[in-house]
Write a structure and sequence with these properties.
It holds the Pfam family Peptidase_M14. Its cofactor is Zn(2+). One of its GO terms (biological process) is peptide metabolic process. It is a single chain. The protein is globular and about 65 Å long. The longest helix is centred in the last third of the chain and has 17 residues. It folds into two domains: 117 residues, Immunoglobulin-like (Sandwich), CATH 2.60.40.1120; 305 residues, Aminopeptidase (3-Layer(aba) Sandwich). Strands 1-2-3-5-4-6-9-7-8 form a nine-stranded mixed beta sheet, with helices on both faces. Strands 10, 13, 16 and 17 form a four-stranded mixed beta sheet that branches. The chain has a four-stranded antiparallel beta sheet with strand order 12-11-14-15, with no helix packed on it. The protein has 14 helices and 17 strands. 30% of the residues lie in helices and 17% in strands. The protein is α/β, with parallel strands linked by helices. The relative contact order is 0.13.
Length: 519
């Protein structure tokens, strides 16, 4: 019976794909309605500890208007809004916690989708993570307003309806709720509230591909790592403040690429920007920070540039390269390679991409980290379209299923595009997705006990290409099943000699601390 269901699912997807270009956004929900009915057996497709408001709370909410003010919401206020949302829109939202902060606050995630409690077969999961640095507060409020905007426009806006019918959107308004509680409104710069309650920068706390990260892992980071290991996210945005730019991987760069000239620049930078840490220097009197490193490009650089441009060009002014200060240069077209801006170790976007194949872009959405609340409507209008259009990019490239010859899904099959060495995996239902630009590709597929496959794929701009791969079991001459060689992370690590500690490495470490004022 299970095989029959899977064969039906694949046939339905193939029939939709064979009809050529996808219909206009207002017609797309029809396919979503069809696919949302497909399930495996009678078991739910996803098990999470979803929060359900108690009955008295639900009754009270029925008589109250549902709205969200343009104001900053502390942890208790944010929690009340999220619970009110899932009470008001139980068929469109689901609230769950991925863990707790150092001080015991829940790390809330809200699913906004036409199928909030169950994974939709063949439909991608995407996410936003905001307020990773507690004093970068605009992103936190943008996420609350995005939730409100999606649920209140589901029945009236065809594009939003299509997006929610075809995508499961996971929104984390605050990864660092402890830091937010001590940050100060009106503080455009500085570090108060940036770190978690133990004084750790969460965006320097993830495993790193280029350099061993010896920082003690934090509960907030552990929670995110476990979260992304359980859900196959296709696309992600990490929201920050303090600049106006979309920054894409890699954030770090091999130590061997740091030339003497680059290190000399860092020495000069330290000399000319010492007043950044001076309590007597404020506002325009601060020295301008100007540092340029070499870009560190991924095998999917074309895709990442496109994703970054999708956000910047739909933003009210980001793509114009508006500089946050007169003493600084803006970013061309509002995008930058992370390492070219400044390299950092232990960043979240590199971790998502290398370890799990999730394409994450860092979105710096405000020049001021914690502007006065009366400016929030402007920030929402500037970013509203970008936030929605960015998520829709998950429906670009290829998608499909990996199955055995009996029609059963193959879980954790390893896939990659030939010549692009960052891979991705199939889900427990055999699904896979990959964002790609139009062109011809070769898809390589490997799985324990199966003969490897290589499939030619053509990607077009109008709609994702459906690619279903059937793997055949194989035994070697010694009688054992074929097992491909695979080592985590997914990226093939080149030979990189570790840098010996010394004067220059101390300067580099100090520079990384200096740029903690950004991103």
């Amino acid at each position: 019976m299970k095989s029959i269901v899977w064969i039906l699912a694949v046939q339905l997807l193939a029939r939709a794909s064979s009809q050529g270009e996808l219909p206009a956004p207002e017609d797309k929900p029809n396919e979503a309605k069809l696919m949302s009915r497909i399930s495996v057996g009678n078991a739910p497709l996803e098990q999470r500890n979803y929060q359900v408001a108690p009955a008295p709370y639900n009754l009270a909410e029925q008589s109250e208007p549902y709205n969200i003010a343009f104001d900053y919401h502390n942890y208790d206020q944010m929690t009340r809004f999220l619970r009110a949302t899932t009470s008001k829109y139980p068929s469109l939202t689901a609230l769950y916690s991925i863990g707790k902060s150092v001080q015991g606050r829940d790390l809330w995630v809200m699913v906004v989708s036409a199928s909030p409690y169950e994974h939709m077969i063949g439909k991608p999961d995407v996410k936003y993570v905001a307020n990773m640095h507690g004093n970068e507060a605009v992103s936190r409020e943008l996420m609350l307003h995005l939730i409100h905007h999606l649920v209140t426009n589901y029945h009236s806006d065809p594009y939003i309806r299509w997006l929610m019918d075809n995508t499961r959107i996971h929104i984390m308004p605050s990864m660092n709720p402890d830091g937010f509680e001590v940050a100060k409104e009106g503080a455009c710069d500085g570090g108060q509230g940036r770190y978690n309650a133990r004084g750790f920068d969460l965006n320097r706390n993830f495993p790193d591909y280029f350099k061993q990260n010896n920082k003690r892992t934090q509960p907030e980071t552990d929670a995110v790592k476990e979260w992304v290991s359980k859900i196959q996210f296709v696309l992600s945005g990490s929201l920050h403040g303090g600049a106006l730019v979309a920054s894409y991987p890699f954030d770090n760069t091999p130590n061997s690429r740091k030339s003497i000239s680059t290190l000399f620049k860092i020495v000069l930078l330290y000399y000319y920007t010492s007043c950044l840490c001076c309590k007597d220097c404020a506002g325009p009197q601060r020295c301008a920070l100007s540092y340029a490193s070499s870009p560190s490009l991924t095998p999917d650089d074309d895709v990442f540039k496109h994703l970054a441009l999708t956000y910047s060009t739909n933003h009210a002014k980001m793509s114009r390269g508006v500089a946050c200060r007169s003493s600084q240069k803006g970013f061309r077209r509002g995008i930058t390679n992370g390492a070219e801006w400044y390299p950092l170790t232990g960043g979240m976007q590199d971790f998502n991409y290398v370890w799990y194949g999730c394409m994450e872009v860092t979105l710096e959405v405000s020049c001021c980290k914690y502007p006065p609340a009366h400016e929030l409507p402007k920030y929402w209008e500037d970013n509203r379209m970008s936030l929605i259009k960015f998520l829709a990019e998950a429906h670009r490239g290829i998608h499909g299923f990996v199955m055995d010859e009996h029609g059963n899904p193959v879980e954790k099959a390893s896939l990659k595009m030939k010549s692009r060495d960052v891979g991705f995996q199939s889900t427990k239902y055999g699904e896979f997705w990959r964002i790609l630009m139009p062109g011809m590709y070769k898809l390589e597929v490997y799985a324990d006990g199966y003969v490897p496959r290589e499939v030619d794929v053509m990607v077009v701009d109008q709609h994702p290409t459906l690619v279903n791969v059937t793997l055949h079991a194989a035994k070697r001459k010694d009688g054992n099943f074929y097992r491909p060689q695979q080592q985590p992370p997914l990226y093939h690590r080149p030979s990189i000699k570790p840098q010996q500690p010394g004067f220059m490495s101390s300067i580099t470490s100090g520079f990384n601390n200096l740029v903690n004022f950004f991103g």
